[in-house]
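Annex B. Sample input.
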Amino acid sequence: MSPVVEQVHSKDQTPPEGGPIDCVLFDLDGVVYHGSRAIDGAVDGISWLHERSIGVNYVTNNATRTAEATAEKITGLGIDTTAEEVTTSAQVLAERLAERFGPGARVHLLGTTGLRVALETAGLQITDTIDEAPVAIAQGLDPDIDYEKIVLACRIIRSGAEWWASNPDYSLLTEIGRVPGNGAFVDLISRLTETEPIIVGKPAPHMMEFAAGRLGAHRPLMVGDRLDTDIEGGRAAGFDTALVLTGIHDIHDALAAAPERRPTFILPSLRGLEALIDGHDRSGTEIEARLRRAWETIDAGETDAEAVLTETDLPRTITEEDT
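Annex B, continued. Sample output.
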C-alpha cells in the first residue's frame, strides 16, 4: 500500500532563480547528526550561516521529540539553537488535525512524547481505548511499539477513524546502522487494514513552507540526505535543494531518481554551504553538471541510469577536496 502524502499549496517543480539564498532548511538525521554525534562539517557549515545572519530552520520528520528537546540536542552538539528554529512533523500533524476536527476532538495516539505534547498543545483530547470513539488516530514513531499497540491501532482504523501519520520514513540511520522508522510500522498497519494514512511530513511541502514562512525567506534552500523525502519535499515547495552525502542516498541514487526527486546541488558535507552560497568554486559542481546532462538523455529516452553507470566513472560520493 502507498501512503497518501498530503500535498499542500503549489507542486511547481521548477527551482526558483535569482536573488541570494536567504535561509537554509535542514533535515536532521543523516544531515546534522548520526545518533548523538554531530556529522563532520555540520557545526562548521551552520556556524558560518549564523555568522552571516542567514536564517536557519530544522525541519524534521521525527515526531518523537518536542521542538524544545530537539533544539537542546542540536545545541548540545555545539550549534546554538532555539525551539523556534525547529519545525517537527508532530507539530504539523497536530495543527492539521485541529484544523480538521476542532479543539477538543478525541484522537488516539500511536507515538511518544513529541507527538503527545503537540496534540495537547493543539487542544486535542488524547484517548487510550476504542471505547472513547476517537475521530482519528495520530501515528508517529514509537520506539516502544508492541503487538498490543498494533492490534489496537488496527481496530481503531477499521472502526472508521481517520488515520494520520507524521512521516513515511522507512528507516533511520543511527550510530549502529539503519533501524526501523515510522514508515516501517505504517506499512505493516496499512497491509493489515488495507487502508492508507494521510501523511503530513516530508515529502509533503507543508513543513518546509511553514519553516520558510517563519523566516520571511524569499529564496530558501532545503538540505537533506534523502531524495524521497527531503529533496522531493523541497522541490514540491518550489525551493532549491541540496543532497548532502552524509546519510541515506548517494550520487548513484540521484542519477536514478525521478524528476521530482532530483537535487539542485550536491554537497559532500554541510561544510560546503559557504562556497555554494557565496558562489565560489566548490566540489560537487562537476558532478552536478554531469548529472544534469545524464538526466537530459534519460528523459529523452536515449539511455537509462544503468547504462550511464556502465559507460562512465560517476562516483557514489565526493569529498571537499574533489574538483
